[in-house]
Amino acid sequence: MFKKILIANRGEIALRIIRTCREMGIQTVAIYSTADKDSLHVRFADEAVCIGKAQSADSYLNIPHIMAAAEITNADAIHPGYGFLAENAGFAEICAQYNIKFIGPTPEMIRKMGDKITAKETMIAAGVPVIPGSEALLESVAEAEQLATEMGYPVILKATAGGGGKGMRVVWSESEIEKAFTTAKAEAAASFKNDGIYMEKFIEDPRHIEFQVAGDQYGTVCHMSERDCSIQRRHQKLVEESPSPFLTPELRQKMGEAAIKAAASINYESVGTIEFLVDKHRNFYFMEMNTRIQVEHGVTEEVISFDLIKEQIKIAAGIPISGKNYEPKMCAIECRINAEDPYNDFRPSPGTITVLHTPGGHGIRVDSHIYAGYTIPPYYDSMIAKVIAIAQTREEAISTMERALSEYVIEGVKTTIPFHMQLMKNEQFREGNFTTKFIETFELK
């Protein structure tokens, strides 16, 4: 087992990893930017190293500085968390060169799943259902027009190196395709330094359902059931839950088997997520694989009573997994609390928290790095907390969440708490009747 793990991340996920490491008797090293010098992950770690200025490029994306921090602290492993360098194959390779274990999959696995075209080809070969679309990157507007005509509108253009909705455009008619193609390529180049674009048939009003998987270094793969992530805005998840109110037991079994096939096809090691789109007829299609721990991993942890970070560390240390597949025994719903103004088009709201009261009580878990007096910096993602409600039934979980949100007090900045409070009262949501387009018609009062 590792003696000391450097956490190449910040905020709540860094704090989450520190807690598990402490339980496992592993020393931790926090890295931080000048903007994060007062963050809780810096205080809770055994050691902390400042690696640069506030901008991510100067700190959390600065590989030479991170490796230097690992070297001077004698860390024998690096946990990347999510975001930043978590799915950077080059970073994983550099860790290996310096004999520091990257807690995640191999660089080859990251590359196979990181490029959407390669991932799609891999899934087709493995017999996993995929969305109909281009077999390679689109070279021209004319090629895009021809393929869209053959497939039939609507179609969606996607960046091959994409994520978070960047480089993505839905095209409803031939008159829109030239502008959409040009815009998507430009956005992809700016966001990922890769302007590769491919096309898929656009699945109207789908559910976004993902399966948690784990694989070890000995070829064993299992799944830990699903999370429904359909409540999202501009392709950014807002609410996640397990089990999905949309899945039947039969469909859960089929999708679980497909998720295992997907991970096994690349001999996957570490924890990861297979993401699917499910249409209204309950046909499901592979969308992408995330080769890292997810923001919403806590939802799965609560419904199967399992520490996914601990499993991730154990797999990296060469410990075999049981191979057991899991089904949710409880119901859990997560609300992401962002420092944003929901009444002003969710505009980011950085600033100093003047008053904080965190909810508690039976059935509530809060993962957060904020405290009264903490200043939320404007340089990073605006998520400041995750509230998870756990209960025997979905109805009880919603009621527990309503109660928790009503006692969550954050003053000094705007947050998305009012949005979530109204969502929990919405009849369509309560009935489980929603798709990825739900928020587009949701009216905040």
UniProtKB/TrEMBL annotation:
GO biological process: fatty acid biosynthetic process; malonyl-CoA biosynthetic process
Residue intervals of the Biotin carboxylation domain: 1-444
Metabolic or biological pathway: Lipid metabolism; malonyl-CoA biosynthesis; malonyl-CoA from acetyl-CoA: step 1/1
Enzyme Commission no: 6.3.4.14
Keyword set includes DNA damage: no
Keyword line: ATP-binding, Biotin, Fatty acid biosynthesis, Fatty acid metabolism, Ligase, Lipid biosynthesis, Lipid metabolism, Magnesium, Metal-binding, Nucleotide-binding
Pfam hit, one: Biotin_carb_N
UniProt catalytic activity: N(6)-biotinyl-L-lysyl-[protein] + hydrogencarbonate + ATP = N(6)-carboxybiotinyl-L-lysyl-[protein] + ADP + phosphate + H(+)
InterPro entries in the record: ACC_Biotin_Carboxylase, Acetyl_CoA_COase_biotin_COase, ATP-grasp, BC-like_N, Biotin_carboxylation_dom, Biotin_COase_C, CPAse_ATP-bd, PreATP-grasp_dom_sf
Domain ATP-grasp: 120-317
SUPFAM superfamilies: Glutathione synthetase ATP-binding domain-like (SSF56059), PreATP-grasp domain (SSF52440), Rudiment single hybrid motif (SSF51246)
Enzyme class, first EC level, given as a word: ligase
Top-level taxon: Bacteria
Transmembrane intervals: none
GO MF term set: ATP binding; biotin carboxylase activity; metal ion binding
Subunit details: Acetyl-CoA carboxylase is a heterohexamer of biotin carboxyl carrier protein, biotin carboxylase and the two subunits of carboxyl transferase in a 2:2 complex.
Function: This protein is a component of the acetyl coenzyme A carboxylase complex; first, biotin carboxylase catalyzes the carboxylation of the carrier protein and then the transcarboxylase transfers the carboxyl group to form malonyl-CoA.
The name this protein goes by in its record: Biotin carboxylase
Organism: Taibaiella lutea
